[in-house]
Fold each of these.
Amino acid sequence: PTLVMNRPNTVTAQDKSQVINLEAGESSQVSFADWEKFSFAPIRESTVSRAMTRRYFADMDKYTESDVVIVGAGSAGLSAAYVLAKNRPDLKIAIIEASVSPGGGCWLGGQLFSAMVLRKPAQLFLDEIEVAYEDEGDYVVVKHAALFMSTLMSKVLQFPNIKLFNATAVEDLITRRDESGELRIAGVVTNWTLVALNHDTQSCMDPNTINCNVVLSTTGHDGPFGAFSAKRMQSLRPKGTDNSFELGGMRGLDMNKAEDAIVKGTREVTPGLVIAGMELAEVDGSNRMGPTFGAMALSGVKAAESVLNVFDL
Ligand code: AHZ
């Protein structure tokens, strides 16, 4: 049998005699049986540039007024994005991820091990996104964390109302004072991550902005890139002032306490800003849970609910 690629997307095995073997571009089939006759459809280099840049700038134009901006494409952020986009196809959702490669700390189960543990009832989220697992009673095991992350990411990226801007960092928050004088988060200030990392070495690299109704921050626990919005809120409302925003600081590891606390605590922490995932441990001073991922998925689910509550819908 010869492998035949029927355009688009379906791959079937067929007997070589059934394959009409024409030049690519002229046929609805490409046979891998005869590489001598193989060639790609022609293209001009500028066409490739335009194909990318036209779409990117159209997306920038479209999402500069978003309904929701999710900061950080780790397990909590992407779980929230999935639930939000699935339930509310009318909302425009921008995901801003500082790294070139989205996924955060969810490519391995822990240390350098592959298998990923999720305590029940987080298996319900795996059922929803159709990731297989072994049932071990109180917990389930996915054979590779990358299977969870790649499946989740692939589903998120297919929603028409989501745009992921990766290699882009949120470097500040847009703030407003409402009539009562309370600070409200009204969007994010962005820059290419490579630019954000070079503000000390170059001048005049002003940022860009995205306005939105609600920011969902899921930037992980404190580190070079972590806990971004929590730390910015602390500096916007410093200790000793009225209405100060103080950070509890993430505590040591306690799986049992940590996972419940993160899911229960996921909320709008200040008007216009919902915080979920491990960034919340820095706000509330809750424990870390280490290599068990159920709380990240379900904190994402609860964050989606909190975001919709901000809209009062
Ligand atoms: O690159 C970051 C990562 O992909 C991204 N990020 C951070 N700051 C950003 C900024 N602008 C844009 N200013 C930013 N993106 O946020 C993502 C965070 O992903 P994560 O996997 O670190 O966070 P999470 O809360 O989804 O999952 C954390 C999982 C746990 S628990 C744990 C422990 O207890 O030890 N450790 C990890 C990694």
Amino acid sequence: MRKPIIAGNWKMYKTLEEATQFAEEVKGLAPDPEKMDAVICSPAPYLAQLVQVLDGYPVAVGAQNMHYEDEGAFTGEVSPVQLKDLSVQYVIIGHSERREYFNETDEAVNKKAKAALKYELTPIICVGETLEEREAGNTEKKVSTQVKAALEGLNDSQVKQSVIAYEPIWAIGTGKTATAEDANEVCGAIRKTVAELYSDETAQAVRIQYGGSVKPENIDELLSMEHIDGALVGGASLKSDSFAKLLEAG
Ligand code: PEP
């Protein structure tokens, strides 16, 4: 049985005060850690504060990006060593906004996934197709190419520890959700790709989230699907009451 994982992606929103207040509000509403993993991926400046406020509560803290080098002359970047130093547990890798606006390549995503795992940070590796790719019937081809590139050189145990987020780009922040059936089909195709690259056992162990306009109204149906093991949530993770509702799902 794969444990569902709900991760909020705050993107570039919130002040320190708002971030702190959110953490205070959700810490008591956190799910049973045996039944679900909950993660908040905040802007980098608030990570230390969130780790402190959520210490001892079953809500983990994640970053939204990192560099793959341990250290160096990379102005403005944050390293896996620094995230580990703050007791951050997760890091989103290859979000479509980073691929689109910051030229993040499949090769960089792979390097970042390796660097995260080296420091025992759980990578949430994002893949997904554009509307044009979907309409051309290329969804599974695109997604499996991204998955193969992201996992290149990882061993079975590293893949099992990773989380893959299927996020159709046309559904992110648009209010358009893939149907639960469509999302499940692509998550199933991702699992098949992992089985071909590794083994059935590894494919059955890896957790695959869906992301794209997830909200309290559609989370139950998404989580009821065979291959959907959780959600990566942008907009609906910004308010503590709707995030708390997502944590009650499943
Ligand atoms: C995201 O940021 O990864 C995302 C899926 O956003 P939203 O839930 O707002 O579509």
